[in-house]
Amino acid sequence: MLQMRQYEYALTAFHQVLTLAPRLPEAHVNMGFALIGLEQWKQARDFFESAIELRRDQVNAYYGLATTLDELGDRPGAMGAMQAYLHLAPLDDPFRPRAEAALWEWRSELQQTQADRQKTP
Predict the structure, then answer these.
(1) Is the pLDDT of residue 77 over 80?
(2) pTM for the structure as a whole
(3) Repeat TPR: residue ranges (predicted)?
(4) Does residue 47 lie in a domain region?
(5) pLDDT of residue 80
């Protein structure tokens, strides 16, 4: 359902999974990604954070957390979460290039902002 972008149906399905297995980190992550699809950023963040609490090495939870934190305006938090993702993700992870690009872009924007502030009297 996530692959087909049927996020409402995915939410219903993952809610049922969480009813049966509330400590299953993968279900928390998938709820988070369904909520991203619906642009419900705060709720998505909560599910990614709970997945990480349940399993510290839940790689895709860090990627989702970075995405939601960036949308919520927490760029430092997003950068930290994406760095954690890159630290844990295998080199052949298909999302790794996108994560590296996002982190590079965020760092560049941060450096530009800092340079602009130094120019302003």
Answers:
(1) yes
(2) 0.91
(3) 25-58
(4) yes
(5) 97
SS3 67: helix
Contact between residue 34 and residue 11 where contact means Cβ atoms under 8 Å apart:
yes
CB 48 within 8 A of CB 29: yes
Which two structure tokens, joined as six digits, stand for 34? 């369904």
Structure tokens at 89: 């993700």
The stretch 3-11 carries a mean pLDDT of 89
Q: Is the pLDDT of residue 121 over 80?
A: no
Read off the pLDDT of residues 19-64 as tens digits, 9 standing for 90 and up.
Answer: 999 999 999 999 999 999 999 999 999 999 999 999 999 999 999 9
Contact by Cβ (8 Å): 68, 48: yes
Q: Which two tokens stand for residue 6?
A: 């049927």
**Domains of the chain: total:** 1
- Residue 81 token pair: 């979460």
Six token digits for residue 36: 């991203």
Residue 60 lies in domain: 7-119
**Residues whose CB is less than 8 angstroms from the CB of residue 54 and which lie 6 or more positions away in sequence, other chains included:** 23, 24, 25, 28
In a domain, 32, yes or no: yes
Residue 77: which CATH number? Answer: 1.25.40.10
